[in-house]
């Protein structure tokens, strides 16, 4: 069987009509690939359209403030993608006069662009035979060829990249790359794929050995750590509240949050009330404390699970650095904070 030919034939019939497939503009392709990293098409599509509407060119994105970029990104998670997106836009606009590099090797030098994204842009925009390898590709190749090397290992990364590079259609790399990604996303799905409709079922190792659910193999990740976050939602006189910008490296770098008290366990009212008395922000002032959510909200990240409670602090005292409550929604915040703001009536 000619793997490439079969794959491209399937794609010609089954591909979805997606906006980034109507262009070879590197700005559009780059934007779509960054948004779709660790994000499903259904979730990413509105963000792609919103970014192009707000920033129609790399120059517009470069001129934007980081706050504006992070606010538009709000809800997608993995905010380092947005910060890198902004940094690269400024570099391309200011140092490269708005012209993206046209080779895989040069694209790799840009901040936030790794092997997969560089391969996608190079092949789709510049017809370079650089094979993409993402979660969809790992799944397709491991099942079809019966590869039991862990995909999250250094050996696996090299092995699958070499195989994908051997299989890619050198004359039509753009279509091949898009086809194999689409095949993994819609046909060779992670759970319960319909193998009866698969054009590769006669020669697929996993299907013919009843091992579809066994591929791809992964090294078991370390157990996620639990963290306990307690946010102090200030309601002071004159309808003021307080947001703090997270500084330093971290998952929410440069995003805003309510003042945070981190504890080593889930807190009940009495225990937390004793802790709050010693918080610098609230020393020597009168306030009333209440709990918004009795059950902690669990926010699961890849390496940690956040157990969060929102504590409402009402006071008539004047506090420094407060903002008008009506402006809260203008600030870029993590989705955990954003969901609270939407559900809480100030």
Structure description:
With 346 residues, this protein is α+β, with helices and mostly antiparallel strands. It has 2 domains: 3-214, Endonuclease III, domain 1, CATH 1.10.340; 225-343, Nucleoside Triphosphate Pyrophosphohydrolase (Alpha-Beta Complex). The protein has 14 helices and 9 strands. Strands 1, 5, 6, 7 and 8 form a 5-stranded mixed beta sheet that branches. β7 (297-300) and β8 form a beta hairpin. α8 crosses α11 (173-186). The longest helix is centred in the first third of the chain and has 16 residues, at 80-95. The mean pLDDT is 95. Residues 35-186 form the HhH-GPD domain. Adenine glycosylase active on G-A mispairs. MutY also corrects error-prone DNA synthesis past GO lesions which are due to the oxidatively damaged form of guanine: 7,8-dihydro-8-oxoguanine (8-oxo-dGTP). This is Adenine DNA glycosylase.
Which features characterize this protein?
346 residues; alpha+beta; Endonuclease III, domain 1; Nucleoside Triphosphate Pyrophosphohydrolase; 2 domains; 41% helix; globular
What name does the CATH topology of the largest domain carry?
Answer: Endonuclease III, domain 1
The major pleated sheet works out as: 5 strands, mixed
Percent range of helical residues:
40-55%
Query: Count of DSSP E strands?
Result: 9
Give the helix tally: 14
Query: How would you classify the helix and strand content by structural class?
Result: alpha+beta
Mean of the pLDDT scores? 95
CATH architectural grouping of the largest domain: Orthogonal Bundle
Q: Give the domain tally.
A: 2
The helix-strand sequence is HHHHHHHHHHHHEEEEEHEEEEH
- Low-pLDDT stretches are none
Portion in strands: 5-15%
EC number: 3.2.2.31
Cofactor: [4Fe-4S] cluster
Keywords: 4Fe-4S, DNA damage, DNA repair, Glycosidase, Hydrolase, Iron, Iron-sulfur, Metal-binding
Protein name: Adenine DNA glycosylase
